[in-house]
Amino acid sequence: MNNIGPDYERFAAVYEKKEKDLLKDYFNFLRIPSISSEMEHRQDMIDCAEWLKDYISHTGLEVDIWETTGHPTVFAEYNLAGRGKPTVLIYNHYDVQPVDPLDLWDSPPFEPTVRDGEVYARGAVDNKGQTFYVINALQTLLELDGKLPVNVKLLIDGEEESASPGLSAILNQRKKELTADHLMIVDGGMASLTEPSVNLGARGVISMRVEVIGSKVDLHSGVHGGTAYNPNHALVEILAGLRDSSGRITVPGFYDDIVELTSREKEQLDFSDNEEAYVSMFGVKPAGGEKDYSPRESSTIRPTLEINGISGGYSGDGMKTVIPARAVANLSSRLVPDQDPRKVGKLVSEFIEASAPEGVEVKVRVSQGGGRAVRVSPKAGVIQAVVKAYEEVLQAKCGFLLMGATIPIAALLKEVSGADIVFMGLGLGLDNIHAPNEHFGLDRMKMGFITIARTIELLAD
Amino acid sequence: MNNIGPDYERFAAVYEKKEKDLLKDYFNFLRIPSISSEMEHRQDMIDCAEWLKDYISHTGLEVDIWETTGHPTVFAEYNLAGRGKPTVLIYNHYDVQPVDPLDLWDSPPFEPTVRDGEVYARGAVDNKGQTFYVINALQTLLELDGKLPVNVKLLIDGEEESASPGLSAILNQRKKELTADHLMIVDGGMASLTEPSVNLGARGVISMRVEVIGSKVDLHSGVHGGTAYNPNHALVEILAGLRDSSGRITVPGFYDDIVELTSREKEQLDFSDNEEAYVSMFGVKPAGGEKDYSPRESSTIRPTLEINGISGGYSGDGMKTVIPARAVANLSSRLVPDQDPRKVGKLVSEFIEASAPEGVEVKVRVSQGGGRAVRVSPKAGVIQAVVKAYEEVLQAKCGFLLMGATIPIAALLKEVSGADIVFMGLGLGLDNIHAPNEHFGLDRMKMGFITIARTIELLAD
What we know:
2 copies of one chain form a homodimer.
Chain A: H1 6-31, H2 42-57, E1 62-66, E2 73-78, E3 87-93, E4 113-115, E5 118-120, H3 128-145, E6 151-157, H4 165-170, H5 175-178, E7 182-186, E8 197-199, E9 201-202, E10 204-213, E11 219-220, H6 231-240, H7 263-267, H8 275-282, H9 295-298, E12 306-313, E13 322-323, E14 326-335, H10 341-354, E15 361-366, E16 374-375, H11 381-394, E17 399-401, H12 410-417, E18 420-424, E19 439-441, H13 442-460
Parallel strand pairs in A: 3-6, 3-7, 7-18, 8-17
Antiparallel strand pairs in A: 1-2, 2-6, 4-5, 5-19, 9-16, 10-14, 10-15, 11-13, 12-14
């Protein structure tokens, strides 16, 4: 274990002095409703990118906005570290998830509120909170030392929650700007602050929208019950048919391209489950995976096919005896190496369309975005630096995990930058990211700040 | 066929003279958003009942409002026909279905609009239009002759679209007021005006709400995909399991109490299907029923179990990679003689609750309302009178059908009144009842008016 040293102390002292002002800026950042997936927030996305550009311009980094076919990307860089110094590319995102159901929020999602040392707001963690401590760690290093010990490139995506289609499309044009030695994806978390970890991999993802189309108009379920094929029935039958009773996905070819971990690779990773802790945190048993794999395996080294949303007819209280004209579902599949998102999307959508019963029409639209899974070695320099920084900041041994979630852009960035990659961050399981009452601890804002500052220093050594 | 006679002519002449004023009143009736299933319309229900009381009070009938545990019932009567004259009980309802999805209406649902001789509004047919011609036929008979040839009781329900729980509960207390010789349920329709028909039966109904409860909060489908059991998956698996591949309901005991029609009974009824007409009207094949029965049989003499609504997670455009904390579905089962609604509700809900996979909780709430199926003989006096009236008005032979829909209160009213029953009305398949753009023809308003007036005269003979 590393002892807390002078390097840690100087960052902690600066942070404490600045904290009040930093939180004001953080709250202003959180107040911008930058929901990338909702068209009505298009201007908010532009406003948020402009806010960031202005904010970063005061740090000493050169900052620019990259237009994309979607929402803009914010890019900043520092090139004055000197000959032979490595270049670190840091990835964050400023877009956030939608906020519904709004009535489950205890305080408004875009009005940050502090309760018991936690900041409640959409994006508090994911990923405005983590973006914010990265920017301020760099600013403080520059302020304290007059320079950075490594070259830094800061890439802040505006479409991570929508699978980064715009940024993905321009990566190859921006290859020169993005070339780096180390790539830090600061959009993750760990199981607990007392058992810190860095992630050696993320799953990929591909999304689909299923639409079942029946009659021209909604029909009366008394008059037409037994005559019209109810799109709700067709939809539940089709979706239920995607998994067998062991939880295995039935789509032919779905598992074909998976590369299994060797037992040696498995040993380096923590696959331990704590069912009791899971039940206590989430109120349910972790029983959703394949019967042949443990929950932790099912959520990291196995792919999934989840129904993220389903809707058809009248589902409110009271009765509306209707056979709806259509029913829809949003699906997403998490992928593991070496599944190809486009191939999986095609396999699943063709299987679904072929399952349409007579009397309805079924259409599947595979989303434009999507990304491959990524895995890295625990020996990479950037991994070692982050492990050391976490051990200093959190005063606990840092382990290795695989991540169930996806940073859709990660695989592409790794390729275009040519860098080793680390997935890191101070999110915790109970932060409610993507859900009502998302929150981030004031203590973790400080920890993140110091971790980034220390990692930058360590990468210069 | 009956020729158009002087009785027909005198009613047609009066109607034509009054039409403009009648439509004004009809439109005012339609403007009241009397949606019985939505709590926010509670005051509108009271306003609508008061509007009717005031309107009927000008006809010469004595009118009263019956309070119930739910929305009020409007009751009116005429007792001066004289000794030995029969009593006719006529049933309508003033409540309407919800209007969503609102964006599919071409004109506002509560602002009646005439296009091509059709009145577009929620309730235009079901059942404000048919209530309206009944009231005005009675008023006109009284105006022309100074009296009615039979005693009349007019019962206008405020909860038909919600299965009439309030009225059902007070029927036995109101037995004296409701005793009658003939019972006319004027809330139905026919296949076409050129092939008129009356209905000799209606299916029963029982409704349920299914709730699948997972984790305490919505979860991230990357982090928890493969760990948490997605309530959407549990719901589609459970609902898909309610029917086998032949369309037969799998719930044990579901079909036990069905009394099959004899072949003689079947011969008197029209079970003909017209697939081409169905496809042209509704845009789909009538492929939703049991494989062992024709569409017409499936929708009249066979029970159903329909998913009227389903909802869970984010089903809008764009992505929200969530595992929702809960998912819900509204189900309804149409019943045939002699299925018991309570028994079927219990069988289905117990089957569903027993299907819950580990990792979620499943709760089913059976609705308070519900009603048994009803069947009557084509020889009943009230049937014969209505057949004659339709043949005069529509100048075509009138046949016999069974109805797929339910008038939940019908079985109870038949029992408490001691009367023979007829299901009648001028609704047509393309009227969009229970759907956006519900509409009723101005020509049918007139036909309904004359049919009621003539039926009342014929029942006095």
